[in-house]
Amino acid sequence: MEYLSNLFKGRLSVGNFWVGILLPMLICVPIGFIPNYSTSPFYNFISIPLVVVLLVYYLSLTIRRLHDHDKNGWFGLAVYIPIYGLYVLFLLFYLSGNEKTNKYGESPNRKIKLDSILALQK
Question: Is the pTM above the cut of 0.85?
Answer without folding.
Answer: no
